[in-house]
Design a protein that fits this description.
about 130 residues; alpha/beta; Signal recognition particle alu RNA binding heterodimer, srp9/1; 3 helices; about 25% helix
Amino acid sequence: MMRLDGFGLFVNDMGKMIRFYRDVLGFEIKEGEDTSNVYLIKDGTLFLLYGRNDFEKMTNRRYEYIKGLNGHFEIALYVDTFEDVDKAYADAISKGAVSVLEPETEPWGQRTCYIADPEGNLVEIGSFNRPFER
């Protein structure tokens, strides 16, 4: 039986991406900015930043990468209240995140917003105005 272990981003500028996920979003990244591989657990989920060049060397292949702001996938982060969505969004923007969608309450009862990381990956911050439940 296979289980979901986590997810990873293949990154171009490791230092810039480490600074974003550590300093803007608060991920507990301990590796230095010159590392080729960040492997951490965030809220029970494996989160990996892996240098594109290193992955290409390991697999002996070249890959195409989406460039700029993209809708290939998203990383979803949850906060407990609608107010927390607005605070987290404002905090991320003040630290240099790119705004994609300002906080708004959707018809299905979720307050959500979107920002982008330095390489254009979408990050959603949302809440159903109650503590997180799996």
